[in-house]
Amino acid sequence: MSYFDVASTAPLHPVARQALLAALDEGWADPARLYRSGRQARMLLDAARETVAEVLGARADEITFTASGTQAVQLGMLGALKGHRRRGAHLLHSAVEHSSVLHTAELHEANGGSVGVVPVDRHGRVSPDGYEPRPDTALAVLQTANHEVGTLQPVAEVAELLRESGVPLLVDAAQSAGRLPVPPGWSLLAASAHKWGGPAGVGVLAVRKGVRYASPLPADERENGRVPGFVNVPAIVAAAASLRAVRAEAAAEAGRLHGLVERIRTRVPQLVPEVEVVGDPVRRLPHLVTFSCLYVDGEVLLTALDRSGFAVSSGSSCTSSTLTPSHVLAAMGVLTEGNVRVSLPLGVAEAEVDRFLDVLPGLVAEIRAPLGLDLAPPTPSGDSLVIDALGKLCPLPVIELAKHLADVSVGGTITVLADDPAARHDIPAWCGMRGQEYLGADGTAYLIKRTT
Amino acid sequence: MSYFDVASTAPLHPVARQALLAALDEGWADPARLYRSGRQARMLLDAARETVAEVLGARADEITFTASGTQAVQLGMLGALKGHRRRGAHLLHSAVEHSSVLHTAELHEANGGSVGVVPVDRHGRVSPDGYEPRPDTALAVLQTANHEVGTLQPVAEVAELLRESGVPLLVDAAQSAGRLPVPPGWSLLAASAHKWGGPAGVGVLAVRKGVRYASPLPADERENGRVPGFVNVPAIVAAAASLRAVRAEAAAEAGRLHGLVERIRTRVPQLVPEVEVVGDPVRRLPHLVTFSCLYVDGEVLLTALDRSGFAVSSGSSCTSSTLTPSHVLAAMGVLTEGNVRVSLPLGVAEAEVDRFLDVLPGLVAEIRAPLGLDLAPPTPSGDSLVIDALGKLCPLPVIELAKHLADVSVGGTITVLADDPAARHDIPAWCGMRGQEYLGADGTAYLIKRTT
Fold first, then answer.
1. Do B229 and A69 touch (CB under 8 A)?
2. pTM
3. ipTM of predicted complex
4. Same domain, residue pair B299 and B403
5. Residues B422 and B444 in one domain
6. How far is Cα B429 from Cα B443, in angstroms, rounded to an integer?
7. pLDDT at A252
8. A120 CA to chain B: closest CA distance, Å?
9. Residue B100 near residue B69, CB atoms below 8 Å
10. Could you report the per-residue pLDDT of A312-356, keeping only the tens digit for each?
11. Which terminus of chain B is more exposed, N or C, with fewer CB under 10 A?
């Protein structure tokens, strides 16, 4: 099995495993207790905090350990918003943040706050001036790198812009911590250990000295009053050990992984018809690439890849339990169907990547075969056509459109009737890719002009 | 080192360690993913949920895994209060709940809710009628057993009282889960794995089907929408394995531990002047006992015990970083100084307990020496004896009791361990006939005081 989904979770690093076993023996007691085993747990915890602080560029007393990256984001956002409530209740975040950010923003809004969403370009990147704060902006949130498409964000520039007005910036470093240096300028920092080869159950919330923070949770004296509950010393020790180990390995591996991803970015569109590789081609994570295959159900493709020995992920609407298209791909204005995210582990063999490129085209072709699509340039045969795709879910409306494009002549129009919300996004995106003219939509009717 | 502080945290159970190692290999992937390793993690998670549900007397779909017992309490309280807000905003809890309950109540109050505190008697036990709800009572909270003094609470009776008015009851089972069966009648249940020999990082929040619950946190689809963040499958698997193992061991050990604690309860006042043993003598946890030594700084005594090889805890003001006296002892109206809590691990050697009883008097005397107090020698209130009649059928337990009555002096106590249901009737009846004082029973332990 080639595991190409480290952006979801990385396997436990051998160093983390070793540290975990040692700390289960030496650091299991309550670090708040005065007896020997308690003091020993406290020392291990302190040392782990020092390590994490050093790698992330923080002071030890700025670091608190949470139960997950999601908890770090939630507490960081709610605590900073509460701490800065005298400033106002306006929150800024990019359109492509992790769902933990979006959901926390929804709660903030439900509680009477206001939220501004900073748009991204077609590569999923914000423009720093989108973060121009309002007088009542109490917090801004930006990821270091996008979790679905790997695009790096201009964190340092945004931090610089916010610094003048004193608006704190929470940086979500979940996808890059341990792999890339943390950009300067954060006020709060969130990360997740299981993404860097640490165990599950450990997140990091760093709060810069002087940044106002008011816990949204019931009082608890542990972890600087920020994270309630018994401190998970063994897992924290393991998380710190793997962070230190991975940082060194990642620096050595970055170039090689960057090249392997570049190979996927270049070869996939040459091997598979009707594919769009998304995300910034240059300012990106070294190990992550995402592409979308037209006319393909992402879940079907993932299952086929799994049977062929590849574990990959998808932000496609078709694999989400909520049936809404990926908000990241939607915000970028790119295709959301047949989406595959490949994220390579440290030390991945080149041969595994090549085998992926060998296997993929056949699998996509197999999935498309029953659709009877003629992906060669079509022959014109009519002036206008209405395609009824009502009640059909993504990607069927686009498949129908592609199948029948050749039924109208160049200059002719096709109206697609589709009530799946994903169509609102996918039909224009398909037109852009295929060089057809998208004329607009009226309710569930989408009008397309054939131009080639 | 004799570790007598399992009420803080128990060492990792060997079964938990084994399960953790296996699950780090087999269950590390994201259980929400569709590929093989993800499905495997999901299966392990489902199996663990079934196990925990079965042991705690719940349905699997009622169980959610949190990051700690504290988080389970916080989410359970806030979620139930939010879910029942149309009923009102009045919260009832006992005066001796864990600080996680008290702090959550403070937050509820700060947010405009009202809180009623149910008093306890001198043994730390609530009277069920203290839980008579108001029309606007939205939630009641009660522990199964007190964490500082081990007193068992009348949970079933309180649940019965609340059932008529439809007020949900959150039961904090942190100190008893895995050691004693969960009493019936809970609407929400909170527990903590590291207290039963599971790893840190796993709590349990169970919510009965039909009980209204509205998450106080940002939305997240994991753990039934109740607990955000990446699910810690390996730790959950280990927690479930140890819960199953410990339940069986605890049932076998209960009588023996009950006897050892009885020995401490009886001997300490005979060996150390000016000592008060607190907590219910009969309706108590089998493994936990607390006593307070007048004129002694608890922290100094703990440090002295640590140097002598005993890890114990204290609810005393002197060891708390907040410098406020234990709210539990204060609510009971008992001495709060020089407080020592002994909580015995499963499998503890009798010799360790005897060594503790050997060492303690000298340490206390040393600490008191500089005070120049003239303390009366302890009044021999009688010695004590534990008769193990487990597995023996009626009338054997009563015969054993009659045979050994003369082995304690007048004022001394005898604990008869008997699991024949007939003992519940015969032992009190025998006491009545013979003019001895029957102090009560806790499960299979019957306490008798020799009066003639």
1. yes
2. 0.86
3. 0.87
4. no
5. yes
6. 17
7. 87
8. 24
9. yes
10. 998 754 434 545 678 999 999 998 888 999 999 999 999 999 999
11. C
